[in-house]
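Our collaborator T.R. sent over the components below with a one-line note: 'Predict the complex.' Nothing else. No constraints on interfaces, no templates requested, no preferences about which chain binds where. So this is a plain run: every listed entity goes in together, and whatever single assembly comes back becomes the starting point for the next discussion.
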Amino acid sequence: MRKVYLDNVAAMPLLPEVREAMLPFLGDIFGNPQSLHSWGDGARDAVEEARGRVAELIGGSAEEIIFTSCGTESNNLALRGLARAKAEKGKHIIISSIEHFSVMNTARSLEKEGFEVTMVPVDGQGMVDPDEVGRSIRPDTVLVSIMLANGEVGTIQPIAKIAEKLPKNGPVFHTDAVAAAGNIHVNIKELDVSALSLAGNQFNGPRGGAALWVKRGVRILPLMDGGIQEGGRRPGTEDVPAIVGLGKAAELAKKNLPVKVQRFSRLRDQLIEGVLGKIEHSILTGHPVQRLPGYASFCLQFIEGEGILMLLDSKGIAAASGSACTSRALKASHVLLAMGISHELSQGSTLFTLGLDTTEDDINYVLEALPQVVDRLRQMSPLYSKFLKEQKG
Amino acid sequence: MRKVYLDNVAAMPLLPEVREAMLPFLGDIFGNPQSLHSWGDGARDAVEEARGRVAELIGGSAEEIIFTSCGTESNNLALRGLARAKAEKGKHIIISSIEHFSVMNTARSLEKEGFEVTMVPVDGQGMVDPDEVGRSIRPDTVLVSIMLANGEVGTIQPIAKIAEKLPKNGPVFHTDAVAAAGNIHVNIKELDVSALSLAGNQFNGPRGGAALWVKRGVRILPLMDGGIQEGGRRPGTEDVPAIVGLGKAAELAKKNLPVKVQRFSRLRDQLIEGVLGKIEHSILTGHPVQRLPGYASFCLQFIEGEGILMLLDSKGIAAASGSACTSRALKASHVLLAMGISHELSQGSTLFTLGLDTTEDDINYVLEALPQVVDRLRQMSPLYSKFLKEQKG
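Returned assembly:
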């Protein structure tokens, strides 16, 4: 059976070059970067080289990079560390209503420490209105965290325009770029942010290799206490293989970005046009233009994401119905609900995320299989029968 | 030049079997364990198998294992998560004065949240007195955290005896077993603890693969917020290769433990006897008997650890002067100071930690090289000249 993997947001294979770069650090170069003897030298050099590569990917400086274990940790460190460092100045935080759970739940958790959280809404395409962020600013606002791109519907936010609305020397502006970095052009100066989260596993790098960039001079408190690694901002023995893999993935992502963006956008548009054309009562979720190149996300009416995924899987196709971080909770996506999509329609959420090996034939295969899957599920759907009756009547 | 690596506490090579077990998960089996399609199945099965292996190493149950990114995170999660979960019952914490920084600094950090910390002292061999812990218990004591074995001097604490001193249904008892697990027999029932930290990189497993065991029924709050991974207790995409490597390392550690303990103890004693016999004004630090099998730790008077490490390095020997987590801070070890060793003497701290490939010849080579290194440094040492003059006078 043909295998078509279109769930790259949940997991993507390592690039062979990334794996090759990591292997020596799972072998002979096993030293601790903190060691004072020569066994540590190779590891230390490799960590610092990777730090430079990650900084280059986003236009920052190496010493502004804090390595973390995953995107969730980067976001937790950002929200807690930046907010707590400014708690004496104020306790108001602004986020959007479609942030990843690692931002949204962390903000909510900070409410227990006396912080107040304003959630700015998004429009039907998942877009934040910069003016709305501007209007939400208060004298005690110390942190604004708006994601660069959404990991469920792919909408890319106007971060630079939001930055313009923030008062000078006002709140720290953090952006969760986990879904974006390595997939679209990201530059911290152009975005005009002070902190940015990224994760290697979103651009064919390893899990365990992620980072938070924090602009020089911006104070951040650590999430954990321990040794002096990462300048005390992230203690714990460095996961050198993962850091090296992240660095290599960052280097390759930067180099290959233009080609990847063009290729992904073309295949994505082929998939979107095909689905909308072939499947009645289907809608595209997220912004039609300002969206991640590799993201094709839909709501398919009258049926449920879980069933769609199961039947697609039986045809060799991997897709998602939302964030892998909550897929097994089987709840309606807070992102779709925030975009004004009904609870019922949001059940039919289906997300295809492209990978480096995705071909036009893969897309054609999905466009052949998906309508069959949808037809079959709708034939069993009470909602669809009801709809048909109402149509007739 | 001969190479003798005796800094295994800072970093140790992966066992070939561990690397082999990890490689497929850096390759074809790249799925996300949370995925609902078949690409996730292999990853999910592997994570659950590893969970069982880790539980077996310490005599716990699989569902009591929370995977984390490192020992520091396990300790942070334990201290913060267990203390905060019981904050309404009381805010008193007991730790020892020789805990790793990830316990000690985290406890101090909790003071900012209103917790009070009692640090029980240790004797000259780094041993905690169970009665002293018992006497420190207060009605509002909610957490006791005493390490199983110290990572700088190797002293093994009488955890089971300490547990006897704790009131029934009283404080949660956590032990930092990062230096111990995989290196000595560890069983949570025999120790009678409610939480235990361990890390794969201390028994030839990968960095990125660590765990906190928390007894069923003991409440713990997460350190981070995000998705539903690890039952919500540790969100973030699972680092499957690291978890698989941890599981394999746990399996092998359990299997090979008796042989390793015997072999390490013999080589360690050869090294200790040799150093104490050949080098004047040298003392063994830590307990002479209740110590980790692979740990030979000394203070060599009149000279400094940094110099010792540099000259040993020039002879192809890797050693440490204390915790790698603070080695570059070049401060006197809080562990040695807590044991009553003078600030001056603690400067000459030197720690050799054995590895699976350490041979008798390696030990002989160190016993040949170290006296030369010490002689050379003492010839340049003002403290040593002063001492000699005083001897004569």
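Summary for T.R.: Residues 170 and 316 of chain B are 51 Å apart (CA to CA).
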